[in-house]
Prior knowledge:
The protein is mostly helical. It has helices at residues 3-7, 21-31, 35-62, 67-78, 83-86, 88-94, 106-128, 131-136, 138-163, 176-188, 192-201, 208-236, 239-267, 280-299, 304-314, 319-345, 356-383, 388-399, 402-414, 420-445. The model is unreliable at 1-29 (pLDDT under 50).
Amino acid sequence: MNRREVHGVHSALPHPVEQTAARNSERSEFAAMNNVQLAVHFFFQLAIILTACRIVGLLAARLGQPQVVAEMITGVLLGPSLFGALAPQWQQAIFPWNPSQTARDTQSYLFPASQLGLALYMFVVGVEFRPEVFSKYARTSVAVSLAGMVAPFALGVLLAAGLYGRAPLFTEKVGYWEAALFLGASMCITAFPMLARIIHYKGLAGTRMGTVAIGAGAIDDISAWCMLALVLASFEKNWIHAVWSIGGAAGLVVLGWLAIRPLLQRWHGKFLSPDGSLSESGLAMAMVVLCLAAWYTDRLDLHAVFGAFLAGTWMPRGVFADQVKSKVQPLAVTLLLPLFFTYSGLNTQILSLGSVQLWLVFLAVLLAAIAGKGLACWGAARLSGLSHPEAIGIGVLMNARGLMELIIINIGLQKGVITKELFAILVLMAIFTTLMASPLFDRLESRLPQDAKRA
Length: 455
């Protein structure tokens, strides 16, 4: 899958509203806009997105949901699932969208801006990540990760065996093993960016629980993307693609920890001002490393978030890391990250389940997702020596899927692996498991031992 295809991953969904002559005319007018007019329209969209996210955030806070969950919901509400269904002409006027990408429209600039926001945020998560704490609890993270992959993957394969050929979930050109691998990979996904924001929101960054969950979530998602590479290699009869993705990722991890991280640690004093603060050159250097790492993993078709996260873990600790975080985080979280959720929501149509059979399939997928991820991760954490409340907390956090799920299933839809019915089922599963995380964790938080909130 080349870079142009990655750009078009989210664009595979058919627009749910019929394309009338009037709306085609609106699209033509938008395509004729020059760069200045596009910029003006973008500022208007940005104002609407940020305002909507904050309004929904106020309502979500009353229900115990963090701002990141509100932004995920807002993205879906602004898309064809609600706004486009209630006021299609208004929605098309504010967010002009051409699924064929033959015209310059909203996705021409919203996609790269949203990817920048996501990469910057995951870079901050990497900066906050404490390798010394992870190494201390690496065995627990690996155990939780393995449980969070093996159990949901097995359940996904069993579901595929029961559903393959009996429901309109996979396209005719998909074989059983390709279907089983894809559904298994979809069930393995953890909402890595969502998990990171919930951990930050709850003040668990750098703690034992937060570090174990972040480490396990990163391993899970990288493994799921490697499984996706195998599915696409089998589907496209191109095994070199899978070897390139998996081998390239492993090479970057080794290069980063053995060469890039020690080199940055040795040179970081050159990027501090005479008063000991971070210089502009230091911030620019950190951004260059971030962009190159994100570019590389994107070229591997493993998504930019993994390169961005790794780049953050390479940053020298102390004043350098603290000031990089303080300069990057407000812009990423407040301004750019909501664009990622909005872009994904503009491609999501969750109202395509029109039969009792499909709703029963959704319930089966949801139950398998919760049992395979939440219960398995709880069990692994408990067996690794963590307290019962901590183990439940890790299970709850790992069970959230969020928009990493949307990314991977959009690829499946765009590549012709799954149908729009299975796409809608997996979107609903991602939303439900993510909405469960914060309220369940709030109930648990008072029961956590004090040492769980320390490294």
